[in-house]
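A common beginner's mistake is to predict each chain separately and then try to dock the pieces by hand. The better habit, illustrated here, is to supply every component at once so that their relative placement is modeled jointly.
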Amino acid sequence: MTKAECRNKLLEVGTQLFAERGLHGVSIRELSQSAEASISMISYYFGGKEGLYSAVLKEQFACFDEIEEIRQQGTDPVAMIEAYIRWTLQRHRNNPYLLRFYTSELTNPTPYFHSIVSPAIGKVIGILADIVEDGIRQGRFRKDVNAVNAVLALAGMVNYYVLSTLATEHLITHSPDLDEQLVHQYLAIFMGGIMSAEPQAEITAASGSADE
Amino acid sequence: MTKAECRNKLLEVGTQLFAERGLHGVSIRELSQSAEASISMISYYFGGKEGLYSAVLKEQFACFDEIEEIRQQGTDPVAMIEAYIRWTLQRHRNNPYLLRFYTSELTNPTPYFHSIVSPAIGKVIGILADIVEDGIRQGRFRKDVNAVNAVLALAGMVNYYVLSTLATEHLITHSPDLDEQLVHQYLAIFMGGIMSAEPQAEITAASGSADE
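With all components supplied together, the output reads:
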């Protein structure tokens, strides 16, 4: 193994083992054996097990920065919310371990929660809340909508859809082929829920065709 | 300790340790030491560590059966959905460990997922989907609503609100005092999202007063 290969192998093995058993459930010996790298290599590249965990976590949550692209894409809050729903499904599709780190850090935070996870989630929620507040100012969303609570509802819809997969696969198919349908269904529910009476008819008409 | 006290102590200690570190992250020795009970008592009452974990899991998910009371309470789908939102917040308030078992079993299922967790979640989602389908048949909800996807959106809104607490406490207060406001906000969003045009005005008027 070259040095770069060794570092990548440690990240890969660490991602899988930490996702399955958490920071405290994995020993440095297991990491070293699974990656076929010496313990001193873990120290050299990451400063130890905690450093490797923190590097894995940074890699998992790096994609949250892409919310900036959604913010910069325009001024239409509905289009930005649609982009958020699609992007969130895509983040989980691209990264099957993300939800494990996400939920385990939120329910049993490690010392890296406050430096890595909380800022990543807080940034996305904050930007979405700004988008919803813009929509309220533009008169497109209801004045009585609480922006942060509404955004948590939106994030919850999309993340829980993915989270619930194992418990609901007898009820529906969670095939990625249906993701685009789901984007439009969830956009219709959320928009119906927060839009002012007038523009709401507009979005229902615009997105209705994609519903089942 | 009496026998009943010993059994309860083991359940209490097991709930806390398993919630924090999962089935595989806790040894039978730690359980025995933390509960001040012998390993043979764990075997006697639960047949071993796995049996104790399974008993803890059953206790955690027993409250999901209360969905039957919501189903039996009437025929108004909107009132039933409101009751579901309130009950779900309450389940988390009453039981601070529930979300850890819930998310860890969905992302890293143990052998007890299929016998305990999946049936409990599947039952709630199934009954809610029946309620939404009744609403569609009654003409109150839109015909193009996919009942299961809509119900996952609803469950996601409420569960994620609680799950996100640690990452969003700088943005909003998650005080239980605001739960009743949240019930009405989330009911308004969900109902706005799935109701037919006519009854929607009705629900907005009925619940609007509780929004901020």
